[in-house]
Amino acid sequence: MINGADTAWILTSTALVLFMTLPGLALFYAGLVRSRNILSVLMQCVAIAALMSVVWLVAGYSLAFADGTSWVGSLSKMMLAGVGRGTVFGETGLPETLFFMFQMTFAIITPALIVGAFVERIKFSAVMLFSALWLLVVYAPVTHWVWGGGWLAGMGAKDFAGGIVVHVTAGVAAIVMAVMVGKRTGFPSHVQPPHAPWMVMVGASMLWVGWFGFNAGSALSAGSDAAMAMLVTHVSAATATLVWIVIERVRFGKPSLVGAVTGTIAGLATITPASGYVGPIGGLTCGLAGGVVCYLAVDLIRNRLRIDDSLDVMAVHGVGGAIGTLLTAFLMSDALGGVGYDEGTTAGSQFLVQATGVVVTAAYCAVASIMIVMIVNAVTALRVSADQEREGLDFASHGETGYNL
Amino acid sequence: MINGADTAWILTSTALVLFMTLPGLALFYAGLVRSRNILSVLMQCVAIAALMSVVWLVAGYSLAFADGTSWVGSLSKMMLAGVGRGTVFGETGLPETLFFMFQMTFAIITPALIVGAFVERIKFSAVMLFSALWLLVVYAPVTHWVWGGGWLAGMGAKDFAGGIVVHVTAGVAAIVMAVMVGKRTGFPSHVQPPHAPWMVMVGASMLWVGWFGFNAGSALSAGSDAAMAMLVTHVSAATATLVWIVIERVRFGKPSLVGAVTGTIAGLATITPASGYVGPIGGLTCGLAGGVVCYLAVDLIRNRLRIDDSLDVMAVHGVGGAIGTLLTAFLMSDALGGVGYDEGTTAGSQFLVQATGVVVTAAYCAVASIMIVMIVNAVTALRVSADQEREGLDFASHGETGYNL
Amino acid sequence: MINGADTAWILTSTALVLFMTLPGLALFYAGLVRSRNILSVLMQCVAIAALMSVVWLVAGYSLAFADGTSWVGSLSKMMLAGVGRGTVFGETGLPETLFFMFQMTFAIITPALIVGAFVERIKFSAVMLFSALWLLVVYAPVTHWVWGGGWLAGMGAKDFAGGIVVHVTAGVAAIVMAVMVGKRTGFPSHVQPPHAPWMVMVGASMLWVGWFGFNAGSALSAGSDAAMAMLVTHVSAATATLVWIVIERVRFGKPSLVGAVTGTIAGLATITPASGYVGPIGGLTCGLAGGVVCYLAVDLIRNRLRIDDSLDVMAVHGVGGAIGTLLTAFLMSDALGGVGYDEGTTAGSQFLVQATGVVVTAAYCAVASIMIVMIVNAVTALRVSADQEREGLDFASHGETGYNL
Amino acid sequence: MKFIIAIIQPHRLDAVREALSAVGVTGMTATEVKGFGRQGGHSEIYRGAEYTVHYLPKVKLEIAVDDHVADKAVETIAQAGRTGKIGDGKIFVIDLESAMRVRTGETGPDAL
Amino acid sequence: MKFIIAIIQPHRLDAVREALSAVGVTGMTATEVKGFGRQGGHSEIYRGAEYTVHYLPKVKLEIAVDDHVADKAVETIAQAGRTGKIGDGKIFVIDLESAMRVRTGETGPDAL
Amino acid sequence: MKFIIAIIQPHRLDAVREALSAVGVTGMTATEVKGFGRQGGHSEIYRGAEYTVHYLPKVKLEIAVDDHVADKAVETIAQAGRTGKIGDGKIFVIDLESAMRVRTGETGPDAL
Ligand SMILES: Nc1ncnc2c1ncn2[C@@H]1O[C@H](COP(=O)(O)OP(=O)(O)O)[C@@H](O)[C@H]1O
Ligand SMILES: Nc1ncnc2c1ncn2[C@@H]1O[C@H](COP(=O)(O)OP(=O)(O)O)[C@@H](O)[C@H]1O
Ligand SMILES: Nc1ncnc2c1ncn2[C@@H]1O[C@H](COP(=O)(O)OP(=O)(O)O)[C@@H](O)[C@H]1O
């Protein structure tokens, strides 16, 4: 039977998660690029949102959630076949149409996260084609593994709101894209600071607020689990923000705004898989760990490996999501205020399951993403010309300019 | 009896619909004008929100929803007379105060939509006076016809969330205003592109998210109807976005951001009347139809008829709302996943009712709007002086400048 | 037992109130300063949000809400000790973790409000230290007095959503800070108009929407009380907006956007304490009174007393909150559509209680804030150097620049 | 050759540019500037007080022309830029020693 | 007549303008510019790394003056603009052939 | 001394600056400007129609140099700024009467 209260909260959560992408993530990313590419980033986010929605309706949802094998769902719910107005989803008190919508907002933000890897040089058509294929080939199956009753679910993997499903997949795909599309002209010596740090902060704030829908909504009900998920999410975000502020203060004497809110996002990504299983101590720990490790990862990938994952998708989301997934094995212990282990499970055995989930997903995502990029490259080139890159994608790809003051 | 879950969702929806106007629509419009008029647009939106709220409390709500004739409500609920803290609204599980509030957010956004017709040249006092009169003379009665038990409701007209009530009325009033206020100096040859496309996108994103409250909130309950309304709303928005992207890509080689999000709004306006009656196929159809027809309508009104409905209110909202209202007659068929027809009704008979609703409302709105504009013109001029128009309304009417970098 | 509907609404309200600070208040304030200080304001807001969250978890919540004396709570709920996933809060139907979160968003915005007093010249470390101490020494005890079963609660003081707890405390602390930190170089003769009035409006709009969570959420349930609180909140905001528009129109011939939305905030602050106790007439009255008196207060403090409470925190929030608290004594009368008086209470006796609350809180807050500022001044200076002030805090304190077009 | 520097009202830019075009001057460079002069500034309203902003927005045009075109160009700017109100701006003429087109390296009047 | 071009620190603009006013020079045109010079640039922080921004914001003043006022004006700008720190800027003087007031068509020193 | 005014493509700024540095010219002032010329403008798309924007963004460099450096500087700018496409810009040279460093009051070539 449909539960009105749960439905009310998930309706709200769906709005919150859409808000994370539009305009939250879009602004977060748009503020980080140069002013001549602001519109292209916004356009990629809105076009991904639109295209993923249709792809999700046509086949994505079915591949993720319709009964199938351990590896992938089936095509039986294409176009929501058999899902009526009154159909209830599984054991929940939610209309299946609502579950479909809530999950769709996740299927929108995940490809949108990858945008950070290839801004300022990608062809628009390549973004569209890549995202659509990736949703079907990577996102939908992995979702099935973890949330759709697939093999990872069977092993007892814990990923409350998408550490593996969303952040690890996006991070790995980002690295693949960054390497295969190639560096921006001038990277790393001539990289310019974000053109609008204020916009980055606004986007991050919206992501923070919207993440309440993401994590607390993943409880699929309006009760204690949602409340605790919201609490630990917030605590992790706050802690990681402070971590970045302290690190930059110590290292440069000046804590930066972009740094602080990057910490926020790191804290949010890290707590995501853990958010339904841990208590306040788990929130603090994820915030601390996510803050520190993601900071180091940015430095490693950007400055040492010199990979132009331009907006640090792997370092912040991929690494954060992975850490959170692994930490869940320990932080879910009831000794630390967590929900405790399933019968027959220990921290150690759970850790192995979690690690398996991260590693296998990352490997699968890497291989599949490489193949998709090769296809995209064959169909439409990946990059704009050097001239267009210099001119800026706003005008070159979309015929518009960002600021006409 | 008050239903907590429904109340929770409508409290949320009320916040979402207010958010559509403030700051959603305000930003959508402000980004489209020149930088010297940005503040005036924002000011018109916020002042309309304030004034309509008071007018709605004093008499608007009563004229729309207090028992009266087929044509208009009565004055018996002026100042919410007789509506106590505990009064339940009709058959719903909502406090009447909440129904009042939810409806008020519609009464705010409808006159605010009309702003798009006369930006960059209108006198501020004319906006205020026009909006207040229009709310009482056009909006409140039409609302009564459709949702307050008036003659259109009696005929069985289907307008779930305001295709007729909100979008057709706003569109028609916009054309009236555009013609009677006259063109902007320099239209159409010297029109300048939007001063801040990024702001247009942010506003459109907020409208998209807020529209979940608008349409899914119009179910007045937290259940299957709200969920399906949210789903079809989203699908239509996504589809129409893609339609504009494809059209511009084909026609100019470059899809623009402003074009894409204009498509979004067209899709949202089109699905609005249908959102409670149709299924996913209805959503796709409204998105396709709304996307294509609104695109053509922009071209027709702006480039062929040369009417300076500056931000295309009629072409996007009026036309979208009308199409959606008419399509509802077919898409509500249960063969297409809709709710099916009332007893004794067929697609054909429903279509006649829908068409009657659109035509009679448009005609009434046109005549009444013309008369209101004439009154406003007599009381206070409609337009600022040519000098003030050139200087920009921000400084001329409000003593401020938008960007002081 | 946990009530799902109430939980759904308070989960939503928590998101709304966080949204008020991030990015609402942050943008409202950032648009008011000069462009070279925009990032510092945003940074102060986000860093306060992060730090207050941790402080609230560690000790703030416990001092406010754990059973203690009349004057302050105890340390028994530090780190949420004893509060489990399933713990229900008091007589409500809410998980205590959710009540903790909802209240935390108030504990974030209150110190963030004070930021308006010392922008463009404060040291970042001073903000951090001051806010943390102030939360523990002023905010937590006062909250205990009013909402935690302390002496003001015992006297029957009515402060629904924080006229005393939030606005009076923030306003008084703001004046203390403004005086002790000293004026900005050039105040008042060389004050410059807000660098981005559009941003001020966007922030104010978000505050307006978020305030629905603040006031209607303070009902802690999804029913008639929440609905009426939302209604009167909105009516007061709308009325006060119109009041400022009318005043500026009469005085200068031009109503300004910044003025209008300042009126909005004044109306919102004024209704806050009254919002759970009054009817529509109460909303109108608070809007009128708050609009007029706050307008006069800005003039008094800024232009006559020449205190550089830079963004008028005392005049808008402190004065608004105090007026609303006092007016509650009359407007709660059932003759005016309010909830009526507790047994044995009259308007007069209630007024004395309300006045006692305002005066004692203001006095305590003033003394405690002065002492805290003295400590902060001893530990880290309050102000940046004159050179840094001139250069702008964005670069001087955070190594970034706001606009890189 | 001469180098003409003209300060004009922003809203006259299109008119001036079109007028110059009509007399054969098509190349020029425009900059948004802040003008201080007799026109004074303007006052903005901020929360119950008026604040003076001392400058007004103007547009500066820089135009390199061959000697024999200079007078005509100045005259054209003056006519097209004139509204008759205070603050219409100034036209300054400076001697230009040399000019070069970057693309081709051409010099002298050919470069213009 | 002379055409003075002064590059100054942005925060000295008000002081310079007021000082010039005091010696009778009230008309001028200001532009926000990017200065490259000995002062070098500054470094901004971005996610764990420092990036060098090569330029610094400066204000350029352009002032047409009558010959006999030129030296006084230059001296005044130098004094009011001086902070003694590197990056205070430069003052350049160029010969001005002619000037015209757009509004009236007046030419020569009367146009200033 | 000479006062060089160069209009160049925005994306050549770094190259030009570095080339000038290499020949010993390190001081200069840059401004974002709008260029009108043969290159024409560009058209932007807005809701189903194309609108012409008449100008193109350019960067103006102003560089005061000692006489003997002038030719070398002009040459350097031309080479580093050249892409060979229309719209590469212009270099103008004007005679500079005097220069002063604000910080020290030094004048003449020493001030540069
Ligand atoms: N001596 C001057 N040198 C440079 N620019 C000047 C000078 N005098 C005025 N201007 C510029 O010309 C503009 C108009 O001058 P103003 O004195 O206000 O009116 P008018 O052009 O009618 O004489 C000013 O805003 C300023 O930009
Ligand atoms: N040769 C030059 N030509 C034009 N502008 C210059 C020149 N040298 C310096 N400037 C301008 O003057 C500013 C200050 O010069 P800089 O060498 O940094 O310090 P200082 O003024 O103390 O000598 C620079 O930022 C630049 O705008
Ligand atoms: N006569 C002129 N005076 C001043 N600036 C000019 C002149 N002609 C061109 N410019 C500037 O030079 C830029 C390039 O000129 P353009 O004619 O488009 O191409 P090209 O440099 O290849 O000749 C223009 O955008 C404009 O800024």
Question: What labels would you give this structure?
Answer:
heterohexamer, A: Ammonium transporter fold, 69% helix, D: alpha+beta, two-stranded antiparallel ribbon, 7 strands, elongated, binds adenosine-5'-diphosphate
- CATH topology of chain A, by name, is Ammonium transporter fold
Q: How many whole angstroms does the radius of gyration of chain D measure? A: 17 Å
For the biggest sheet of chain A, the summary is:
none
Order of helical and strand elements of chain D = EHEEEEHEE
Q: DSSP strand (E) fraction of chain A?
A: under 5%
Distance between the ends of chain A: 55 Å
How many E strands of chain D? 7
What this model shows, in words?
The complex is a heterohexamer, with three copies of chain A (405 residues) and three copies of chain D (112 residues). With 405 residues, chain A is mainly alpha-helical. Chain A has one domain (9-389): Ammonium transporter fold, CATH 1.10.3430. Chain A has helices at residues 4-32, 38-65, 96-114, 124-147, 151-155, 163-181, 197-217, 224-252, 257-271, 280-304, 313-331, 347-379, 386-391, 393-398. Chain A is globular, with a radius of gyration of 20 Å. The termini of chain A are far apart. The model of chain A has no long low-confidence stretch (mean pLDDT 97). Chain D has 112 residues and is of the alpha+beta class. In chain D, helix 1 (13-22) packs antiparallel against helix 2 (67-81). The model of chain D has no long low-confidence stretch (mean pLDDT 94). Chain D is 22% helix and 42% strand. In chain D, the strands form two sheets. A four-stranded antiparallel β-sheet of chain D has the order 2-5-1-6, covered by helices on one side. In chain D, a hairpin with a 2-residue loop joins strand 3 (42-46) and strand 4. Chain D starts with a strand and ends in an 11-residue tail after the last strand. Chain D has helices spanning 13-22, 67-81, and strands spanning 2-8, 28-36, 42-46, 49-53, 56-65, 89-95, 98-101. The longest helix of chain D is centred in the middle third of the chain and has 15 residues, at 67-81. Chains in contact: A-B, A-C, A-E, A-F, B-C, B-D, B-F, C-D, C-E, D-E, D-F, E-F. At the A-B interface, helix 1, helix 2 and helix 3 of A face helix 1, helix 7, helix 8, helix 9 and helix 10 of B. The complex binds adenosine-5'-diphosphate (3 copies). One adenosine-5'-diphosphate (ADP) sits between chains E (7, 35-39, 56, 58, 86-90) and F (27-29, 62-64, 101-103, 112).
